[in-house]
Amino acid sequence: MADKKVLIVEDDPNLLETLKYNLRKEGFDVVTASDGEQAIEVARRERPDILILDIMLPKMNGFEVCRILRKEMTVPILMLTAKADETDKIVGLEIGADDYMTKPFSIRELLARVRAMLRRVKMTDTRSIDRLTSLKIGSLEVDTARHRASLAGVVLELSPKEFDLLAFLAENKGLVFSREQLLEKVWGYDYAGDSRTVDVHIRWLRQKIETDPTQSKYLVTVRGTGYKLEG
Questions:
Q1: How far apart are CA 48 and CA 91, in angstroms?
Q2: Domain range for residue 150?
Q3: What are the DSSP calls for 52-70, one per residue?
Q4: In whole angstroms, what is the distance from residue 88 CA to residue 100 CA?
Q5: What pLDDT digit, counting tens, does each position of 114-140 carry?
Q6: 88-127: b or e for each residue (b if 16 or more CB lie within 10 Å)?
Q7: Helix, strand, or coil here: 151?
Q8: What CATH number does the domain containing 63 carry?
Q9: What is the three-class DSSP state of 122?
């Protein structure tokens, strides 16, 4: 992954230098920013392959940076939070972040997450050439070539990870996947810890594809097992 560019947005100079050193040691091309406004500028100029984004930043917080950049590019975003606050994590996922890590974290795990996220992007790009262009489940249509989904002809506003999750389940219609399996297949790594990332994405997908999210027609929970897409 020596040709991959990572943008690190972090205002703690010690952590920034640590992340920069370790990512460069692994062969990544690294660019940095230390506040939210600079992050927007650098991201637009450098077009990174992945973004590591702290939440607590001067000038503009990480949530706002994520919200702005998500409208402009599909770069994978890994958010860093200093608080084990469920609200921060959920807000980050809702506005388009692909994953989050709570400080303090191990550099080894962060590197594994970065590699996994980049592998997932590569797998998606490769598979889009071979897989079916359009998948239809009732009134729901998932166009994998155009990275677009619609319901009854109306295009859905999905974050990149919401689309990846929906496309994976559509490709495996009727099959049940556990949270851990979805983390491995969609997020690209075997994550044995907090599986709430999946639950948040499932909940928001339901808000967008179900007429009544409390009575799921498409995205079904199989109690004690996981989730499946049917219809």
A1: 23
A2: 131-229
A3: EEESS-SSS-HHHHHHHHH
A4: 9
A5: 988 887 766 555 444 445 577 888 889
A6: bbbbbbbbbbbbbbeeeeeeeebbebbbbbbebbeebeee
A7: strand
A8: 3.40.50.2300
A9: helix
